[in-house]
Amino acid sequence: MATREDVLDILKTIDAPQGGDIVAAGVVRALGVADSGVRFVLEVPPGQTEAWEPIKAKAEAALAKAGVGTVNIALTADAPPPGLGAKKEKPKPQGPQKVPGVDHIIAIASGKGGVGKSTVSANLACALAAMGRRVGLLDADVYGPSQPRMLGVSGRPASPDGKTILPLRNHGVTMMSMGLMTNEGQAVAWRGPMLMGALQQMLMQVQWGALDVLIIDLPPGTGDVQMTLAQKTEVDGSIVVSTPQDVALLDARKGIDMFRQMNVPLLGMIENMSTHICTNCGHEEHLFGHGGVAAEAAKLGVPLLAEIPLDLQIRLASDGGAPIVVSQPDSPQAQAFMKVAQALVDQGVA
Ligand SMILES: Nc1ncnc2c1ncn2[C@@H]1O[C@H](COP(=O)(O)OP(=O)(O)OP(=O)(O)O)[C@@H](O)[C@H]1O
């Protein structure tokens, strides 16, 4: 009598349409080998039974020639019933998830610290809120959380049921920050896994409510927070903020590469502190050089969304808890942020 291995060896001589043999193709199921003969199921992809008829005939002929007894092959495009060797469906790999109730997520990133990423995030969030969008702002910068100060909120968020966290709200923006979970000024020594857990907790456990867009103010650089965000959460796009200096741009490029690798679209770049206008005489100076970010954006084929001047009013407004978009909405500086917000709405990502 032929053994199971003998039968498989014979079947391995028969080619599958997509290349390789039919055993390697994984279509031979429920193989039964007995004294009386051989029976099995050829389970082929849906709609392909016709293409597999000649292959079934070849298998029948080869087995008959080998003298294995009666040959009974059932050709089907349906999975055989359980117990007949049906392959269990593997659970689908978990890709990036949507945050419930949140339509869009935009990550604001920078390669280097101190380039104004939080200032841009706060102003963009307030600008979108002023345009009537339902906006959330998540300050994921655990090393230097600044949104509570910029949006003028303080106090600890409540958690009435011990599971969900109630966010805070000011200037029409729903806001949550790691800075609100720690004492002000306290050095936070977060390790990678803690960061990832904290970010997921902020995204999933904070009661954001229904939002058109959630802005995420990322920590500078390309660390655990950025990676976890891109892997676990569906992000509509990123905006990279940079000052015009070469060093800042060099780091910004690293951030851009990371988002590219993680399939997060780059919505555009913002040059911050691009020019300085003297408060006394109105003279314009390019303290950090000018146009570096525009050149980089052109090279990458992404829009330069704005060139924000280095301006005392921007800093005073942020430090005072009412970003310039709120405190001086008609100023040219505020208008620069409003333009970016409008562009995001026009693009359908906010
Ligand atoms: N265009 C600007 N004009 C004047 N001051 C600015 C401007 N942009 C940012 N600043 C000021 O620079 C400082 C750093 O800005 P901000 O906190 O936004 O940077 P950041 O990139 O988020 O920094 P980090 O994430 O490293 O803490 C703040 O005091 C802010 O008010």
UniProtKB/TrEMBL annotation:
GO terms for biological process: iron-sulfur cluster assembly. InterPro entries: FSCA_dom_sf (IPR034904), MIP18-like (IPR002744), Mrp-like_CS (IPR000808), Mrp/NBP35_ATP-bd (IPR019591), NUBPL-like (IPR044304), P-loop_NTPase (IPR027417), YlxH/NBP35 (IPR033756). Residues 80-99 are annotated as: Disordered. Residues 4-69 form the MIP18 family-like domain. ATP binds at residues 111-118. Pfam families: FeS_assembly_P, ParA. In the N-terminal section; belongs to the MIP18 family. In the C-terminal section; belongs to the Mrp/NBP35 ATP-binding proteins family. The keyword Iron-sulfur applies. Binds and transfers iron-sulfur (Fe-S) clusters to target apoproteins. Can hydrolyze ATP. Signal peptide: none annotated. This is Iron-sulfur cluster carrier protein. Homodimer. It comes from the Bacteria. Keywords: ATP-binding, Hydrolase, Iron, Iron-sulfur, Metal-binding, Nucleotide-binding.
